[in-house]
Amino acid sequence: MSSFQVSSEQDGFRLDALLQGIECPDLGALSQKKARLLGALGAAAVDGVRSEGTTRVKAGSTVTFAADHAALMLDLGVPIAFGDDDVLVLQKPPGLAVHKGPLVDHSVADALARELPEAGLSQRLDREASGLLLVGRHKAALAFLGAAMERGDITREYLAIVHGEFDGEQRTIDLPLRVTDEPDGGKPKTVVDPNGQRSVSHVTVVDRRAGSTLVRVRLETGRTHQIRAHLLAQGHPLLGDPRYGDRNANDKVHATFGIRRTLLHGERLRFPQPTSGAAVEVTAAHEPDFVRMFPKLRARPAQ
Asked: Chain-centre distance of CA 264, in angstroms?
């Protein structure tokens, strides 16, 4: 991941104009067209926040951009946070489906099948959630990552914005979960059940504001909708969540901040590199809607 600081002469420039001319392997100097396409993908971040190409930048701000992966980002249509010969870590924007489905026109799985036929996903992420997705680039890497996940050698941390003001600074939620069907039979829902699977989430408060709390959740287990179900069971459902959330709170956050999606973001991944075994840690850029609610997430530009 390369970065540069916006100069005083570049103050007020569009972000995609700053990307134009950057040297990228396999592409050379970015053309205006490719810079605009990458900007539209949200492939660059400004002061730690994933930003559209039309964003006007300020002098002193830091722009980060994975120049080494520009060609693959254009092919896949998804920003990339990390990549080597064995692994990719994608930064999925909200609204992009991960898997195929009857109401899905385009998914991460479709893009991988088209561009990297041997690659596969090593984890799940809900369609309306955002953040990091771990991908094995070939069968051996996928098998290695699958075994590492089973052993608990892969750490997944998420940011979430919940309804209400969370008591205390840290909490471990150890409640068994079971996936059940709603009455229409078409939408599985996860519920706390003594006969369910062991499920553990470690929650740390990051920041608070009136009526909501920003928390970081580290998963010890990885059940379907674990974070959503665990936080609901604590009386603090995710804001924006249409199925597990509070309708009145969701309406309010939409009216106040223009947010209409589940406020869950895959922030950090730690995993062993499949060939060397060396520890790799990848941190995502923040999403603009999280920063609208909690501005302290944005890195301060240099003065």
From this structure: 8
Q: Give the count of beta carbons closer than 10 Å to the beta carbon of residue 153.
A: 15
Helix (H, G, I), strand (E, B) or coil at 140: helix
Determine whether 126 is an active site residue: yes
Taking the CB of residue 159, how many other CB atoms lie within 10 A of it?
Answer: 23
Structure tokens at 186: 């078409």
pLDDT for 301 equals 78
C-alpha 111: how far from its chain's center? 17
What contacts 279, CB < 8 A, 6 or more positions away? 270, 271, 272, 273
pLDDT digits (tens, 9 = 90+) for 146-184: 999 999 999 999 999 999 999 999 999 999 999 986 655
| Tokens encoding 93 | 């924007």
Domains of the chain: 1-74 (3.10.290.10), 78-297 (3.30.2350.10)
Confidence (pTM): 0.93
DSSP 268: E
Strand partners, 143: none
3 state DSSP class of 86: coil
**Catalytic pick among 126, 241, 246, 289:** 126
Contact 265, 286 (CB under 8 A): yes
CA 37 – CA 30 distance, rounded (Å): 10
DSSP, collapsed to helix, strand or coil, labels residue 177 as strand
Residues of the chain with pLDDT under 50: 185
**Residue 242 contacts residue 250 (beta carbons within 8 Å):** yes
Instruction: Match 């240099």 to its residue by tokens.
Output: 302
According to the model, what pLDDT value does residue 55 have? 96
